[in-house]
Amino acid sequence: MARPHEIAFPAGKRARRYLAPLLPAAAIIGLVSLGAAPSFAMEGKQLPAPAIDEPASQGATDTAVLAGGCFWGVQGVFEHVKGVTSAVSGYAGGGMAQAHYADVSTGATGHAESVRITFDPGKISYGRILQIFFSVAHDPTQHNRQGPDEGTQYRSAIFPISAEQAKIAKAYIAQLNSARVLEAPVATTIEPSRLFFPAEPYHQDFLARNPTYGYIVVNDLPKIENLKRLFPNEYRADPVLAPAER
Question: Could you list the residue ranges forming a coiled coil in this record (predicted)?
Answer without folding.
Answer: none
